[in-house]
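Most newcomers find our protein records easier to grasp once they have seen one. Read left to right, the backbone structure tokens trace the chain's path through space. Once this layout is familiar, the rest of the handout is easier to follow. The record below serves as our worked example for the rest of this section:


***
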Amino acid sequence: MMSLRTRLMAFVLLVLTVLAVMFCAVAYWKMSDALSSAIRNEITQAANNKASFVAEWVSTRQKIVAATLPRFGTGELQPVLDQARDAGGFDDMYIGQPDKTMTQFTGAAKVPDGYDPTGRPWYLAAKDATGPIASPPYIDAATKRPIITFAQARKDGGQLVAVAGET
């Protein structure tokens, strides 16, 4: 038979063990909650930063494309397209007109004979828009690769004059 002192010591040890387990469980729960919250915040911040970067990237590309349009009809377009292509680091820079002509930057991949820019997805999307667009993905006529074009139309007196685009 155990003495009163032994039973009392066992009881105190049992209480201390239960308290230690409870404190550990509460600490684990609080730490887990804090870590989960910190991870969520980090993910949200990273996603917001990436979204901001992409929005700025798209905006810059659209501004460069739009900058070529006022130059349309004022002389040689190829130097303007060359400069815009170099400034934006684009693969291609071009302007299509309603008369089905197309002017490309100096080193552009040759489009097939009989190429009609007015039927291309980038031209069709931009001519109906009131501002800059990003086309849906389509197959490039020259390279036969899938691409997306940033484009914008120029309208004078409501009449379509040209559509500038870049890939």
Q: What stands out?
A: DSSP finds three helices and seven strands in the chain. The first strand starts at residue 93 and ends at 96.
